[in-house]
Amino acid sequence: MTGFGERLHAALAERGPLCVGIDPHPELLGAWGLTVDAAGLATFTEYCVEAFAGEVALVKPQVAFFEAFGSAGIAVLERAVAALRESGTLVLADAKRGDIGSTMAAYARTWLSDDSPLCSDSVTVSPYLGFGALEPALQLAQETERGVFVLAATSNPEGAQVQQATVADGRTLAQVMVDEAAVRNAGAAVLGSVGVVVGATLAAAPDLSALHGPILMPGVGAQGGTADDVRRLAGDHLDAVVPNVSREVLRAGPAVPALRDAVARAVDGFAFLRA
């Protein structure tokens, strides 16, 4: 197995520059005519896996919506992650984990260890207990050739309160997180495996010039971000950007062909990223 960054780069070239979320929000379950329970969750997820497996470069299950149904929801997530990975589709577990010491190490084992039933190709992590607190996840990801996406400048308005605060040298905390990720990616032949999350709804992005890693851009579609916003924020680093589209695709369901058509339209809308 090659490093996550290299595998992601190849998948984006083959299947188009897109990350599609599996977000089984109760409103979407209802819109699909499904019950808001573990059975409805399972059916929703099965349709998504069938539609996206082998069709999308990166699929991002939103872990919270599965956890909401307890152990039955986690079982659905386990099956989905396994099925997607068996199809050769890269999986990003959107868990946003962040803690210290042995607790962070346990989170890392959950999502990045070969012997975990929830083992994914990558996971989102929160660095706002200090970037160094992520070390257990960063180390395990390196050992298992998986990836992490570090929250840097997120699309929610509340994030600015923390992320735009400045440190002694004048950098914002968001910029510090990008710079710390860049250090981890130094020397990667194609694309490093430590990505960052930069919201597509932001007025401006941190300086991404030294990152040499993937840039996940959520906030496209339902949250108001557009392809033009992605182009503006990415600047000269379009080949590293992975726009995340969830509800705009999922609203096309539940029919699998309709979901695939929605994916194709979204990929076409970001064709400039691989021009």
From TrEMBL:
Keyword field contains Ion transport: no
Alphabetic keyword roster: Decarboxylase, Lyase, Pyrimidine biosynthesis
Residues in Orotidine 5'-phosphate decarboxylase domain copies: 17-262
Top-level class of the enzyme under EC nomenclature: lyase
Superkingdom assignment: Bacteria
Reaction equation(s) it catalyzes: orotidine 5'-phosphate + H(+) = UMP + CO2
Active site: K96
Classification via InterPro entries: Aldolase_TIM, OMPdecase_AS, OMPdecase_type-2, OMPdeCOase_dom, RibuloseP-bd_barrel
Recorded GO MF terms: orotidine-5'-phosphate decarboxylase activity
Pathway: Pyrimidine metabolism; UMP biosynthesis via de novo pathway; UMP from orotate: step 2/2
Keyword Lyase (UniProt): yes
Enzyme Commission number: 4.1.1.23
A Pfam cross-reference name: OMPdecase
Alphabetized PANTHER family for the sequence: OROTIDINE 5'-PHOSPHATE DECARBOXYLASE
NCBIfam families with a match to the protein in the record: pyrF_sub2
Family to which the UniProt record says this protein belongs: Belongs to the OMP decarboxylase family. Type 2 subfamily.
Name the UniProt record assigns to this protein: Orotidine 5'-phosphate decarboxylase
Species the sequence originates in: Rhodococcus zopfii
